[in-house]
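ok trying again, last paste got cut off:
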Amino acid sequence: MTAHPLAALGRPHRADALIAGGGLAGGLLLWLLGLQGGPPLFGLPSALTLVSLTVMSAAELLRRTAPVAALVLGIPALALDICTGTLVATVLMFTDLIYAAVLYGSPAAARRIPFHCVLLTVLSTIVLTALWHDPQVLMLCIAIAVGTLTPAWTGVIIRNHRDAAQAARLRAEQTALLAEMDRRQAVTGERTRMARELHDMVANHLSAIAIHSTAAQSIDDPAATREALGVIRENSVQGLAEMRRLIGLLRDPKAPGGGDEPAATPTLDGLDTLITQARASGASSGLTFTLDDARRADGAEMSPRMAAPVELAAYRIVQESLTNALKHAAPGEVRVRVDHDHGVALTVTVSSPFGERPGPRAPGSGAGLVGMRERIALLGGAFEAGPGNGPDGRVWLVRAEMPVPEEDRRPEEKRP
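nice, full thing came through this time. structure:
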């Protein structure tokens, strides 16, 4: 709880009103029964103790809305009460004001009031002991300590527990908020990954289908039409297989029909198949395709294996680059080179003839380059794509470099 604004001073808390009313009624009853703590001092009339009782009750109405002001108002009321006979109800309400000032007051008041209570108790003990050499003075000093220190430190303890509980609630809310943010980021990241994977898998086959279906419609040659339809069928079957693989990755293995075996992830060993498909799809456009896999040292048939994320990213880079070449490249040779730099970085380079075309051979979404950049960025690599100069003239060059740390390499690739 915190102190309410001054605008709320006219509307005391219900509990404060009950405490004030009960203290006033109890004090009046004690005064009518003559149950006062002692005779009035300095010749003051005993009826003045009702004035201090009334002021103390009014201060109780402010114990929650203005606790420090209520305590300041209660100090002279207590002094008047002591001088006019001392009603126990007035003293008890004053101790409650000390407790409320510590509990509901500002942090500065909660620090200073207990210190002042200790100082008041010590000074009162010293002064009373010096003035009156009487054993009853010790009891009076104990009463002062109980009436000031006990409510002050009780308020400190309860306030500390309240602040700790509030801090714990805030931490719990922050933890829940961070968890929700992490969940949303995870969902967004997974949707982005799925969109990138779906684009890279399907775009290649659909582009080939679009190109050859256009050729089949425009060329009045039965042999060319049959060849185009064969390429269309092959790409349709392969695209369907890729879609099934993706669905297998997304489906819960425990769900009915989900299957127990994980779907295979494409690797660089499938580059030969990609090049073969590209040759079949690009033959009618005057495109030729070559693969230079520098990882195959000494004429080895199989290339060294790397971590699955690296191989998948490299495979998708080549696949998307070949798709873009089928759509945009001028007639000529498309070169694909894969190089492994001493087991430290994997580099994929794809160059295709760059020419001025009125438009692509097949429509595209424009998300290919974005997806390739995202894949390389996730691996902490470098990616660049754009026109450049090659041995045979202007080319469109795609270059991706992916780090392959020692701990991420597959066991068969690590050096002894």
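cool. Confidence is low (pLDDT under 50) at residues 1-8, 255-263, 407-416. The first strand starts at residue 287 and ends at 293.
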